[in-house]
Amino acid sequence: xxxxxxxxxxxxxxxxxxxxxxxxxxxxxxxxxxxxxxxxxxxxxxxxxxxxxxxxxxxxxxxxxxxxxxxxxxxxxxxxxxxxxxxxxxxxxxxxxxxxxxxxxxxxxxxxxxxxxxxxxxxxxxxxxxxxxxxxxxxxxxxxxxxxxxxxxxxxxxxxxxxxxxxxxxxxxxxxxxxxxxxxxxxxxxxxx
Amino acid sequence: xxxxxxxxxxxxxxxxxxxxxxxxxxxxxxxxxxxxxxxxxxxxxxxxxxxxxxxxxxxxxxxxxxxxxxxxxxxxxxxxxxxxxxxxxxxxxxxxxxxxxxxxxxxxxxxxxxxxxxxxxxxxxxxxxxxxxxxxxxxxxxxxxxxxxxxxxxxxxxxxxxxxxxxxxxxxxxxxxxxxxxxxxxxxxxxxxxxxxxxxxxxxxxxxxxxxxxxxxxxxxx
Lengths: 193, 222
Prior knowledge:
The structure holds two protein chains of two kinds. By secondary structure, chain A is α/β, with parallel strands linked by helices. Chain A has two domains: 1-66 and 141-193, Rossmann fold; 73-138. Chain A contains five helices and eight strands. The longest helix of chain A is centred in the last third of the chain and has 16 residues, at 153-168. The radius of gyration of chain A is 17 Å and the shape is globular. By secondary structure, chain B is mainly α. Chain B has one domain. Chain B is 86% helix and 0% strand. The longest helix of chain B is centred in the middle third of the chain and has 30 residues, at 90-119. The interface between A and B is medium-sized, with 30 and 25 residues.
């Protein structure tokens, strides 16, 4: 799905990473680890083409652009949970039926909050709404930047389950997190200094 | 097309839930206009002579007030980078943002125009010319303002900078629009001005969203 050769990037004259080469095949999970400020988020943005000041080659071979959960969640505070989820569908030009959105809301543990404004939700709940985009669409590749922060234990095991499900249908996942990932599949690790 | 309609609906919904951002510029417009008769004195002849200029400058300032917020919340909550990331056309998204900006700031000003004109003792021909000129020009203001809004969206306080960037672009339409109202009051033909304003409108409709989309790509590249 993704081939990276010799990727390097520097910020404010300080090299974040250089000479990175790795690939992502269908069914692979790549965990990016590293301390604060080691360039995990920047690497993900570089891979997605959101940050273009880098060296090296990045080649995607997927039909649809990857889904991305970043530090900025892409959630409008003054829209409801359902409206935000529908907007994710519109953005990807996906025909998302209402049944699937309802299912996602239920799975995310947001039942009863469908028509609540996101401004009235907690941090963790907002994160769950943003995670909803992965449940309502079938894009082959997921890129997740710290998806587990602000998520409780119950949500964590649910997230592990959806990661597992996505890998089982030959999806690819790139994830940056400090949390150990407990799935019964090999996890490739990319460590940034 | 789907993105266009959904985006306009989303913006209208967001502003409907928080109407203060829409109402503030309109209140500002009416307050500024109503200060002039108080300051200059309620003499119809004098007010009438300077009315087109006053109304137009107030309308420009009111439009600029709301300009800064065109892309700001989308930038801050991450919606903008999701747009860039998706394979949807940023051009269409920009066009949708401009249309919703016009519906929320330009159109209400057009509707308030007759009231403003009455406060300044404009006669019927003047009222019509003023309303028509604002109807023709307000979409151009939103289109050109979008460029400034997108360029400054990554800056913490872009408000004043938008004004400085965009004001020079507004000069030609301001000159033509006030000339049109004066011509109408003098009883002469205004169709030439209408054609000019329409030409500027269509020109900016084709070109401004390209510049705005490019500026959005620069703003999210970080």
